[in-house]
Amino acid sequence: MLDLGVDRDTDLLAFDREHLWHPYTSMTDPAPVRLVTGAEGVRLHLTDHDGERLEVVDAMSSWWSAVHGYRVPELDAALAEQAGRMAHVMFGGLTHAPAIDLAQRLVSITPEPLQHVFLADSGSVSVEVAIKMALQSQRGRGRPERTRLLTVRGGYHGDTFGCMSTCDPVGGMHSMFTEMLAPQVFAERPPAPGGDVEAWAEGVRQVAEAHADELAGIIVEPRLQGAGGMWVYDDRCLVVLREIADEHGLVLIFDEIATGLGRTGSLFVSSQVTPDILCLGKALTGGYMTLAAVLTTSEVAHAISRSESGVLMHGPTFMGNPLACAVALASLDLLASRGWEQDVARVSGALSAGLSPLAELPGVSDVRVLGAVGVVQLDHPVDVAKATDAALREGVWVRPFRDLIYTMPPYVTGTDDLARICRAVAAAAEVA
């Protein structure tokens, strides 16, 4: 019997190459892509650009979001059940049970002062909202001149304009837009665990003191800086930032879009040091729908209400989408019922055992593991094509960038597949 599947896949890939942009790629000279034809458990079914069909372990959780894997019965059911009621309704002047139930759940599992919830479209949008909250709350406190943010080098907070302004201005991805971005204030990147926090803290305090009258807030990714370089840093730095924020009347924002919901070993890093604003995303819906949440304190919320507008000036079309809220609730249920702590600890142990020996490979400058995150840093830019091909030959999908080959696998990844991921990262590092 004639199998038209390969021809269909080939046609799709050909159209994709000519017409579809992918993240951070050229339209005129695009990098090769693979066609995903299905996904189940922790595996992706691919058609390679040469027509070969592959089944591979997803070591990336679809950019850190699919923590439960794919085709999860509980999440499928939640999505289908909600679709049978309504897929979407505007949030202006209306509300619905999935949004209310999700907000109630988030308030119950995050630090107690965070009592007010804004449901955003995506991680980047949540950061934009958090920035607006910080600026508007300062206006409500009678300090409209406070319009800048203090942050640290090595950070990444998203690709929209407010977000870009808070990303690393030198090593980040947005240097070509510098002249259009709001000029923020940057302190040095925080030290790794066990580093000289006192010396770093003195430097940050000096920066904050010098700019205190123009600063509205502080924004950082707590414990782990993601796309800015996968840097792990000492939790004591967060205590320092909390102290600085309190001393100068600044709004402290934690961007836990990547670190929240268990990825680094804590449900929230914010459970150790409480921010004034918390951004969540990625794993919130288990990778099923785009959704983020911004939680803040009553103090910030009331200050915003005292600003000249009297309201928070943001309102996306798909704010509080019922489908996304319903699947987010189901995802949070799964995290609790499956015991994410044990899963993340198991993943962490396997990554430590499998990746630590790679520190001896030529060209590897560092190996670091934190929770369900494993990073191999090279002493040179990675050859993405070679590294990707090498990992695929081991039956694993990775997506290296800059000088990093890393993995953030689904929490449910089994022991054998974790060992496979480590072998694939090793293979990628050897050729990259």
From TrEMBL:
Binding site for substrate: W63, Y156, K282, G315, R399
Recorded metabolic or biological pathway in which this protein acts: Cofactor biosynthesis; biotin biosynthesis; 7,8-diaminononanoate from 8-amino-7-oxononanoate (SAM route): step 1/1
Assembly and oligomerization: Homodimer.
Protein function: Catalyzes the transfer of the alpha-amino group from S-adenosyl-L-methionine (SAM) to 7-keto-8-aminopelargonic acid (KAPA) to form 7,8-diaminopelargonic acid (DAPA). It is the only aminotransferase known to utilize SAM as an amino donor.
One GO cellular component, as annotated: cytoplasm
Binding site for pyridoxal 5'-phosphate: G123, S124, D255, P316, T317
Protein family (similarity comment): Belongs to the class-III pyridoxal-phosphate-dependent aminotransferase family. BioA subfamily.
Modified residue annotations for N6-(pyridoxal phosphate)lysine: K282
E.C. code: 2.6.1.62
GO terms for MF: adenosylmethionine-8-amino-7-oxononanoate transaminase activity; pyridoxal phosphate binding
Site features described as Participates in the substrate recognition with KAPA and in a stacking interaction with the adenine ring of SAM, chain residue numbers: Y24
Species the sequence originates in: Nocardioides luteus
Gene Ontology annotations of biological process type: biotin biosynthetic process
Predominant location category: cytoplasm
Location in or out of the cell: Cytoplasm
Catalytic activity: (8S)-8-amino-7-oxononanoate + S-adenosyl-L-methionine = S-adenosyl-4-methylsulfanyl-2-oxobutanoate + (7R,8S)-7,8-diammoniononanoate
Cofactor(s) the protein requires to work: pyridoxal 5'-phosphate
Top-level EC class: transferase
Protein name: Adenosylmethionine-8-amino-7-oxononanoate aminotransferase
Keyword terms of this UniProt record: Aminotransferase, Biotin biosynthesis, Cytoplasm, Pyridoxal phosphate, S-adenosyl-L-methionine, Transferase
